[in-house]
Amino acid sequence: MQRIAAAIGSAARDRGVGRDAIVTGLASSWEVCAGSVFPLGVRPGGGVSVDGPWVRVGPGSRAWAEAAGASPPDCSSSPGTLQQGSGSRNPAAVSLHQAGRRAQVNRSEAAGRRRRDMFWIRHSRVVMGKIVSNGLRVYRKYLAQYFIFRLGREIALAVYRAGFRLNCRLRRGDTIASYTFASFSEFRRRMNPPTSFIAPAAHLVLPPPHIIGAPSAALAMAAPIEIDVPEARIIEIAGATVVGGSSFVLAQGCAIHPDLLAPKSEESPAEIRGFIKVDAARTAMTSYFGPVARTLPRAVNLLGQSAGNYAHWMTEIAPRLAILDASSGYDDWPLLVDGWIHRNMREAVTLLSCKPRPVIPVERWQPVAVDVLAEVSATGYEPYIPHKLSNKPHPRYKNCFSRYALDALRTAAQRVAEPAQTAVPEKIYLRRGTGSTNARGLSNVDEVERIMRDSGFTLVDPGQLGFAEQVRLCRNARVIAAPVGASLANMIFAPAGATILALAPFYENDNYYYYAVLAGVLGHKLLFVLGKPSSQRAHPIHNDYHIDPGTLGEALRTCP
Known about the structure:
By secondary structure, the chain is an alpha/beta fold. It has 14 helices and 27 strands. β14 and β15 form a beta hairpin. α1 crosses α2 and α1 runs antiparallel to α3.
């Protein structure tokens, strides 16, 4: 466009006339057909005019140059085209035409380069993702049991964080900012933003799980489980910035976090990777996320630090979408979703949203500014606890899940999943596929699967199914069995009262609360079948284990 304007200006200077005269001369060999949009626009009433850098020609206008002799061009083809007349050419028109053609070629070449660049970026991300995933699996399964490798990892992370932050200060120091930590409820009380109330807080008393295979663990969880669920609300935050892969919202000098997240005692992935630095008192943080990638007038935040894990996404992200649908004020607001999540989660966003909202993927560590952000209160939470120099399990943490939000999610999922074309089994064993990167596996998996098959269970690899297929598989199940892992989150879609059989390794001070609380909130009966770990050196969470066939048989006899 700038070349076109420059060509007109140059022709005007050469001829010693005004730009209007040159534009009028262009019509001697060119015409804009009705309804066209060219760098030449339209003024009411037609005619030719110059408006800043843009040349405007009215549809169907015929302003002929004094050179005349030019026959009117043929505009019988489709509207919106610019065609050359058969009469004499004005030099300025030729120059304009050549500039336009060059601009069109340049745009096409630039678009081609962008497509090629995006292809290689996506391809490289997939490759790097697989390398990192497999590398972490090897580290956790084989190397993390040795202190020297854990020490090396901590040193490497410390050096990387220091180098990354120094580079940020030298190259983009103006983007570094400090924020004070504030919980969702604290920010709402302090700033009083526009709020939509959805559901009240609740105190729940849940039955303890039944545990087979470890008497000490059974005694540790023999008492009922009590949890306090915060109220469900939606608040609107002005001038907010969100970041892919993070649970923080940066706004008005505050780093807003879910009520269930405790910055004083928990590290986040962003902190470990150097994108934030928390002060010694752990009451404030410094952001190194860099410049904002894009700005939106309004959006709904569905980002989270553990969104890449299916179980975390189903308990911490998807229920927030169900809460959003309970309010009528956000029917057309776009959804900010982590761009690095699995395709099943992307499918779930499309199916579960009751409104035709646009979905905007946000890449990991990419800041996005939003003029007005809709933030939904937490529906569940599991702390991100990295493996430090110690190779021991983290302290017990009592999880919390919103019964209102999970019931709303289950109802939404039942609604969108089409009826199965064939009979759905009532006893399902969710086996772990060969492509799983989970470092915690059954050492006698073939024996366990044979026993489950002989007991009438249908063996299914959920990793080979889409989201809707998993919902259809589980929504009529009476018994769901599986090794502990993300696939057990599919108990959300089973009708209340189902029996959940969870195979897990036993170790002292284990945190069995996650699935115990989840099953209790959903109204299921949970039965843990614990096995002996294969190694005493490996981290318990990433350790193979052996399920005794007699213990498994005892558990199966209690199933309906």
